[in-house]
Write a sequence for this structure.
């Protein structure tokens, strides 16, 4: 680390910006936001920059740079298009021991601007010391995704309450109190947008603080999507980072699992067809038990937890036991596979509706409303339909669906191993066997499948 990150208080300090164009304006915006008073010197200054300067009670000097201007300022930025001027500003500032930044010239800087993630009073700077600003910006985008917008309100609440907490609690108890504030119900309420309730909970706890209550457990029922980790929601990722323990099953891809907090305990409760490694009742009970031990329990599921995921049964038990939980939707296999295979699920020319159907055999049988399913103008998506594929195809044909209706099997959709096998109702059972299609695979039936050839696109996971 060559550059030490510091948080500089520029409130009411005068900052000199040499230059009046768009680069100068960018820096001016940042400094103005942090409460600095701006002095801008340049023969020409954009209207936007002039406005910014006025908003800080600063001044615009329509003239060339002169070193005397450095006498009244605490910070210096050179942002002109003339390398000579920039160099002179840097040399002058350094000879006066003033911190100076020359835009895009790290060798002339005594400090650089990090990429900034801002949430109210909270600021995170990511610095590469000028060596890889684009990488720093990419990391910033990742941080943006991890921090809920509500965390700004939490930081603001903490700032408002700081003195009150200081007055109410001796130093030895304060840290414990703040830890509870930031990890318990106060944070949960405020981050969810309910600042008033959060503040009330904080005040109530402060009045009678006996030390941290035992942590209260909760369950996050999270949809992990069909495979590609890029398809996770921001909220899923945030909760995955907070969990103490994770229960996951076979459909959760390794790439998704890798994003769970490193030191979280991992429990595999996967199911294979005909072989339930952990019976559903035991999973339900385990969720209750772990939460009652005060743990933050992540129940991570493939796709969406409410689509053929038995998510409803799991939270039913939690609700009965009075355990707080939240459900985070995920991209279901149908959406993921369809997109990544270039098969729109509805299309004006082919399908006005789409049905998600379980193809799971019960005692070798599939009890489905075949006549309805065979009617035209819809797309059928069968989950768990590989073993029953022959039955599905023959039943649809028997109930009037044309045998040449196109069918796609999407194997391991959205992952780097995705395969798409296309045929029709007649040919697909044999094709599936010949191509040795394996689970997880999704069956898509209908006219929309004919678009696959034309609409398939470059899959970034491949
Ligand atoms: N809750 C899940 C579905 C669970 S049922 C969701 O919303 O996606 C399991 C079935 O989903 C599998 O048998 C398979 O048909 C389908 N499936 C899940 N992930 C898949 C993937 N990556 N590619 C193809 N099919 C998938």
């Amino acid at each position: 680390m060559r550059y030490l990150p510091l948080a500089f208080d520029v409130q009411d300090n005068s900052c000199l910006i040499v230059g009046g164009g768009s680069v100068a304006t960018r820096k001016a915006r940042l400094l103005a936001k942090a409460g600095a008073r701006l002095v801008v010197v340049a023969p020409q200054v954009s209207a936007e920059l002039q406005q910014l300067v006025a908003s800080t009670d600063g001044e615009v000097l329509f003239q060339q740079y002169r070193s005397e201007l450095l006498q009244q300022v605490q910070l210096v930025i050179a942002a002109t298009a003339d390398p000579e001027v920039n160099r002179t500003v840097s040399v002058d500032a350094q000879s006066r021991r003033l911190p100076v930044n020359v835009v895009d010239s790290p060798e002339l800087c005594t400090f650089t601007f990090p990429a900034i993630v801002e949430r109210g009073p909270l600021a995170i700077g990511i610095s590469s010391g000028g060596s890889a600003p684009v990488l720093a910006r990419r990391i910033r985008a990742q941080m943006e995704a991890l921090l809920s917008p509500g965390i700004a309100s939490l930081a603001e609440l903490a700032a408002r309450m700081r003195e009150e907490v200081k007055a109410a609690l001796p130093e030895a108890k304060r840290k414990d109190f703040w830890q509870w504030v930031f990890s318990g119900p106060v944070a949960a309420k405020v981050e969810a947008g309910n600042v008033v309730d959060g503040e009330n909970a904080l005040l109530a706890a402060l009045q009678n603080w006996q030390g941290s209550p035992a942590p209260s457990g909760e369950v996050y029922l999270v949809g992990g999507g069909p495979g590609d980790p890029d398809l996770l929601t921001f909220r899923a990722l945030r909760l995955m980072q907070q969990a103490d323990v994770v229960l996951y099953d076979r459909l959760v891809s390794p790439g998704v699992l890798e994003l769970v907090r490193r030191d979280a305990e991992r429990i595999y409760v996967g199911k294979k067809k005909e072989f339930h490694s952990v019976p559903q009742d035991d999973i339900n009970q385990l969720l209750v038990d772990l939460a009652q031990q005060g743990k933050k329990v992540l129940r991570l599921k493939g796709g969406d937890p409410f689509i053929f995921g038995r998510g409803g049964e799991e939270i039913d038990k939690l609700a009965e036991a009075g355990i707080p939980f939240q459900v985070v939707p995920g991209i279901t296999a149908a959406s993921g596979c369809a997109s990544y295979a270039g098969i729109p699920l509805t299309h004006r020319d082919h399908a006005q509706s789409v049905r998600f159907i379980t193809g799971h055999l019960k005692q070798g049988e599939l009890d489905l409303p075949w006549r309805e399913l065979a009617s035209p103008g819809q797309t059928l998506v069968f989950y768990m339909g590989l073993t029953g594929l022959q039955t599905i195809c023959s039943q649809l044909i028997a109930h009037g669906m044309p045998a040449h209706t196109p069918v796609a099997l999407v194997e391991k959709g959205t992952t780097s191993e995705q395969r798409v096998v296309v045929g029709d109702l007649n040919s697909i059972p044999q094709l599936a066997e010949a191509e040795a299609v394996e689970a997880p695979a999704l069956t898509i039936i209908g006219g929309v499948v004919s678009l696959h050839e034309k609409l398939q696109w470059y899959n970034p996971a491949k």
In short: The chain has a mean pLDDT of 93. The first strand starts at residue 14 and ends at 18.
